[in-house]
Amino acid sequence: xxxxxxxxxxxxxxxxxxxxxxxxxxxxxxxxxxxxxxxxxxxxxxxxxxxxxxxxxxxxxxxxxxxxxxxxxxxxxxxxxxxxxxxxxxxxxxxxxxxxxxxxxxxxxxxxxxxxxxxxxxxxxxxxxxxxxxxxxxxxxxxxxxxxxxxxxxxxxxxxxxxxxxxxxxxxxxxxxxxxxxxxxxxxxxxxxxxxxxxxxxxxxxxxxxxxxxxxxxxxxxxxxxxxxxxxxxxxxxxxxxxxxxxxxxxxxxxxxxxxxxxxxxxxxxxxxxxxxxxxxxxxxxxxxxxxxxxxxxxxxxxxxxxxxxxxxxxxxxxxxxxxxxxxxxxxxxxxxxxxxxxxxxxxxxxxxxxxxxxxxxxxxxxxxxxxxxxxxxxxxxxxxxxxxxxxxxxxxxxxxxxxxxxxxxxxxxxxxxxxxxxxxxxxxxxxx
Length: 433
Description:
By secondary structure, this protein is an alpha/beta fold. The protein has three domains: 14-137; 152-380, Ribosomal Protein S5, domain 2; 387-426, no CATH class. Helices cover 44% and strands 16% of the residues. It contains 13 helices and 15 strands. The chain has helices at residues 22-35, 41-56, 64-82, 92-106, 115-137, 151-154, 207-224, 263-277, 307-318, 329-343, 359-363, 376-386, 388-409, and strands at 14-15, 19-20, 158-163, 175-184, 195-199, 245-250, 282-286, 290-292, 295-296, 302-303, 324-328, 352-356, 369-373, 415-419, 422-426. A four-stranded mixed sheet has the order 3-4-6-5. Helix 1 packs antiparallel against helix 2 (41-56) and helix 2 (41-56) runs antiparallel to helix 3 (64-82). The longest helix is centred in the N-terminal third of the chain and has 23 residues, at 115-137.
């Protein structure tokens, strides 16, 4: 999950004192189109912004028509990608460059029909940037902020940082935060092995991610056996009699993912969903605004990553609303070193970096994970909801049995009738007493 970038405005397309080199710009345009076919919206923003920066820095009336042609070709895509752009996981200076470029585009006459949309997007980015600057300056803690970039997106989610890989720009790493949503199919659908469905999945998964899915599943099963009386055979990796589907949703799916550093987050997601699936008496919830990185083997041992990668991910986390970053203990020193380096510019930023070595180590820390008994009334309600048909049948059968029982064993006189010389005393159900 890695990628490289360069300054947004570098002037490589401008030769001979501000004139445009058509051959070079066509080459860069084709390279841009090739890179726009993959990657996140944030990456695409920077790719197009870099290209626009080259165009806009060229001077002279003779190049205006050329500039207009290239700007017109990409302006719609640029604004669409910008509509989902946020400044998090990046140094504020990069978002400020985007804002300044948008101001320049607002003033271009032939882009007048886009002016309202450009202004709207610029205002949104400026608003989000203010939130990031507040976090860095500790004007408000991340936990107090409002809006999509705070509570709703970082509340109890299985969050992990990702580094995008691309070859178009050098010098800047585009990073994002990703989260997972796990869903387990309620009933088995076929005979064979469990199916893990990745959504979205446009291509074959990288081998380490494929392996990590199975390792995380087995580690989660081992933990859940403490709280679940009986695990269904279909959920065992060894089962060949039944099989079900487990859906793994990458909530943002930003770029092409490689490596297994999503292991901790994936395992916690499996644990949460398995306990919900079995309506276990115990629930496990991740505390708010925590991000995890590190692979996890099927025995629950956390795997470390390289110094370069952990430093890049710490950079990612530093410029985000995340308040606690969980890493392998071997990576803790590198993460702390990068954090202290970044704090020289933003001394008020608060971030806890926690080193762990195993899943058990992580789950024993109540500042990271909340493990508690489920409310019995809530649990019963869930059981009724999940087995509503069986519950209705039981109610009907109970009613029928109760009726006949009451009819046969009710000895209270309710009415009488006279037949010749005989008086018949009856109960409320009409049975002769």
